[in-house]
Specification:
The protein is α/β, with parallel strands linked by helices. It folds into three domains: about 100 residues, no CATH class; about 100 residues, 2-Layer Sandwich (Beta-Lactamase), CATH 3.30.450.370; about 240 residues, P-loop containing nucleotide triphosphate hydrolases (Rossmann fold). About 35% of the residues lie in helices and about 20% in strands. It contains 14 helices and 15 strands. The strands form two sheets. The protein has a nine-stranded mixed beta sheet with strand order 9-8-10-11-7-12-13-14-15, sandwiched between helices. Helix 2 crosses helix 3 and helix 12 crosses helix 13. The longest helix is centred in the first third of the chain and has 18 residues. Belongs to the GSP E family. GO terms for molecular function: ATP hydrolysis activity. InterPro entries: P-loop_NTPase, T2SS/T4SS_dom, T4SS_GSP_E_ATPase. Pfam families: T2SSE (PF00437).
């Protein structure tokens, strides 16, 4: 019986899924024996005595390591002078397991399905986001060194590093959760760690409607736009839910199409059978091997895609994305950081200029109007909820101004309440893309756009 099996009686059956990696270093011997940290240290000593330096490598099979952790913890707990209740013993067993096999105090937060983000400001200050609101957590790391070991464990598992010469790093956990870490000297108050958790069960269009992120009518319109191969950009601020919406909209792509996804950290989870996933790579210790979003977008054009889905454009890759949309890859999807649909177009202009091409502004705007059909704006409201606040269509260029018309707009029904009371409603404007959808046998009634 493995440790995961034994711990299932204490609501810790997921211990087996945690990656085994480097363990605790030595803690001072002047801690009283009945101190919890000393118990963990004694367990660590037992493991070193059994495994030696294998404990710090990947040579030990996870099940074998789990068994050794269970046996060592049991031995130490049996040896302490004061008796432990069954609950205290189970809790201590779980904490030691999290420390040796997992991410220490972060492990219970990662197990909590109601927590969407974990923010470690410093070793003794952890905040979590639950239901769109931020709360302090009573859990802490023992010290700065403890936090740094946890960060090293995370980044080393994906072949990355973080130190004084490279003090920032993006990585992801085994379940796909996105991780960002910064360490001194750029982090003035000590190392900082942010984890955006990856949902085990991908959201569906029904989930977004149930959470009031979007209305059913507006979702039907966006689904028709995807099926009708319109190029779409999802705009929004950090944490507004852009990637979730992108994943849901991607689910409407027909199963018989070849999809290439391009991401900084793989988060998209498409259910279609013909999907190729590409992910960027940072440079190595010799500053070689860097692969950017722009490199992957260029390469994806040689992979015979029907659709290209880019997790986010934030640099010169915007030019390559526009060219892909303009050269037969209709129905492509991407996201961009911006506060409004109009700002999204301005950001795309700026990012195209970052590509190093000396293009006049009018030429860039012509590219945008020919490439992008629909811009979806998503916002994080004051109560923590995520809402689609605008769906806009790009209709053309007048002089040097891109012409847009809002098809749906979020209207507040009560501006004085603490919560968000309102609804995404049609503006009454009929879109110009209805004929294009009809040419692809996608029917969308005019009723969807009437007030």
């Amino acid at each position: 019986m493995t440790l995961a099996d034994r711990l299932s009686r204490t609501d810790a059956a997921d211990a087996k899924s945690v990656i085994a990696a480097k363990s605790l270093r030595q803690i001072s011997h002047d801690i009283a024996f009945d101190d919890e940290r000393d118990i963990k240290f004694r367990v660590h000593e037992e493991l070193i005595e059994i495994l030696g330096q294998q404990l710090y490598g990947d040579q030990v099979d996870l099940e074998i390591l789990e068994k050794h952790v269970f046996d060592a913890t049991t031995k130490v707990l049996d040896a302490i002078d004061r008796p432990l209740s069954g609950l205290d013993r189970a809790r201590m067993m779980q904490e030691v397991t999290d420390e040796i096999l997992g991410l220490g105090p972060l492990q219970p937060l990662l197990r909590d399905p109601n927590i969407s983000e974990i923010m470690v400001n410093r070793f003794d200050q952890i905040y979590v986001e639950r239901d769109g609101n931020i709360f302090p957590s009573p859990l802490t790391f023992a010290n700065e060194e403890h936090l740094r070991r946890t960060i090293d464990r995370i980044v080393s598992s994906v072949g990355r590093r973080v130190d004084e010469s490279s003090p920032m790093v993006d990585a992801r956990l085994a379940d796909g959760s996105r991780v960002n870490a910064v360490v001194p000297p750029i982090a003035l108050d000590g190392s900082s760690l942010t984890i955006r958790k990856f949902s085990e069960d991908a959201f569906t269009s029904r989930d977004l409607v149930a959470m009031e992120t979007i209305t059913q009518k507006a979702m039907d319109v966006l689904a028709a736009c995807v099926q009708g191969r319109l190029n779409m950009v999802i705009s929004g601020g950090t944490g507004s839910g852009k990637t979730t919406t992108l994943n849901v909209l991607s689910s409407f792509i027909p199963d018989d199409e070849r999809i290439i996804t391009v991401e900084d950290a793989a988060e998209l989870s498409l259910g279609q059978p013909h999907v190729v996933r590409l992910e960027t790579r940072p440079s190595n210790t010799e500053d070689k091997g860097l692969v950017t979003i722009r490199d992957l977008v260029k390469n994806s054009l040689r992979m015979r895609p029907d659709r290209i889905v880019v997790g986010e454009v934030r640099d010169g890759a915007a030019l390559d994305m526009l060219q892909a949309m303009n050269t037969g890859h209709d129905g492509s999807l991407t996201t961009v950081h911006a506060n409004t649909t109009r700002d999204a177009l301005s950001r795309i202009e700026t990012m195209v200029l970052m590509a190093g091409m000396d293009l006049p502004i009018r030429a860039i705007r012509e590219q945008i109007t020919h490439a992008i059909n629909v811009v979806v704006q998503q916002s994080r409201m004051r109560d923590g909820s995520r809402r689609i606040t605008k769906i806009s269509e790009i209709t053309g260029l007048e002089g040097e101004t891109i012409v847009m018309q809002d098809l749906y707009s979020f209207e507040y029904s009560d501006a004085n309440t603490r919560g968000v009371v309102g609804q995404l409603l049609p503006t009454g404007i009929m879109p110009e893309f209805l004929d294009r959808l009809a040419q692809r046998d996608v029917q969308l009634s005019a009723e969807y756009f009437r007030r």
